[in-house]
Amino acid sequence: FATSATTTLGMRQLTFAHRTRALQCLLYLADKETIESLFKKPIEEVKSYLKCITFMASFETLNIPITYELFCNSPKEGMIKGLWKNHSHEATAVRLVTELCLEYKIYDLQLWNGLLQKLLGFSMIPYLRKVLTAISSIHSLWQVPYFSKAWQRVVQIPLLSASCPLSSSQLSDCCESLIRCSECPVSDDLDMIGVARQYVQLELPAFALACLMLMPHSEKRHQQIKNFLGSCNPQIILQQLEEHMSTGQLAGFSHQIRNLILNNVINKKDFGILAKTKYFQMLKLHTMNTNNITDLVNYLANELSLDEASVFITEYAKHRGKPVPPDAAPLEILKMFLSGS
């Protein structure tokens, strides 16, 4: 099938789809030397041939007659625009035009605006995600009106279709949407507040806070984050960071959000909200690393016990390389710390 030399099918029956599948199998099963010996060509040329007949198989699906020679020799931009003009109402053709534009680096702004609009119209969201990632480095396409609209939709559609309690696949889609937000080259044009609201509705406040942090630096961003921190539950956010953002592409968010949450707890002196949780030790370490333990020491001494306060001061002193005298009593340790000695 791949070479047409041994097939029992007539040439009219042997479609480019047949050839494509056969050659894909051959490339998967045979080694480089066998393939080059069979085709009498370098492996790169064989792979290039496969790419061409794959495109031609799509032309066949659209009932557009084309030969290998015609495909190879035709000016690609003219061929693509002709295909678009006559077949843009067909989803298969829209995908084919998109693939051809990507392969042959055709970046006509009007054509791409139409392509993105059609890909949205045909609800080809998973494919559209891949396309947007592929063209994100083409700066000229950022000005296409549907470029930012397409990004907004691929981010929001999975969130709009999800509901609580989230299934594992829906949670995965929510994570993917946040990754798209972070990768979007025109994130300043996205409605991050709207996306954050959707995450709140899905009970994912850590994701919502990540969206707000992706907003352009401005007074509006500062105020949105401040308002959000005033209404969120730090324990839930820290838990979601641990469960959903500790690895992979979202790990960068985890460190920033954790620091933001812990600093907010310290600034508000709201230590009690984490006191009986596993995140209290995290809070202690954060205050030590930022040399900001005084308020927490006062909380420990006044709300818990003098012993806990002295143990914490001892840990901090050791952390700084200035250990307290081993025979010092808890009250003495506290007094020494508060006096600054």
Question: Could you list some keywords that capture this structure?
Answer:
341 residues, mainly alpha, 20 helices, 70% helix, 0% strand, elongated, KNTC1
Briefly say what this structure is.
This is Kinetochore-associated protein 1-like protein. This protein has 341 residues and is an all-alpha fold.
Number of strands: 0
The averaged pLDDT comes out at 93
- Write down the secondary-structure element order: HHHHHHHHHHHHHHHHHHHH
Helix content: 55-70%
Q: How many H/I helical runs?
A: 20
Distance between the termini: 86 Å
Sheet bearing the most strands, described? none
Which class do the helix and strand fractions yield? mainly alpha
Fraction of residues in β-strands? under 5%
Low-confidence stretches: 5-11
Gyration radius, rounded: 30 Å
Shape category:
elongated
Pfam family, one: Rod_C
Domain RZZ complex subunit KNTC1/ROD C-terminal: 2-262
Protein name: Kinetochore-associated protein 1-like protein
Organism: Equus caballus (Horse)
Please write out the topology:
Blueprint: H1 16-29, H2 32-39, H3 43-61, H4 68-73, H5 76-87, H6 91-104, H7 109-121, H8 125-135, H9 145-160, H10 168-183, H11 192-201, H12 205-213, H13 219-231, H14 234-244, H15 251-268, H16 272-275, H17 280-289, H18 294-304, H19 306-319, H20 330-338
Description:
The protein has a domain at 166-263. Helices cover 70% and strands 0% of the residues. The chain contains 20 helices and no strands. It has helices at residues 16-29, 32-39, 43-61, 68-73, 76-87, 91-104, 109-121, 125-135, 145-160, 168-183, 192-201, 205-213, 219-231, 234-244, 251-268, 272-275, 280-289, 294-304, 306-319, 330-338. α5 (76-87) packs antiparallel against α6 (91-104) and α8 crosses α9. The longest helix has 19 residues, at 43-61. The chain is elongated, with a radius of gyration of 30 Å. The N and C termini lie far apart (86 Å).
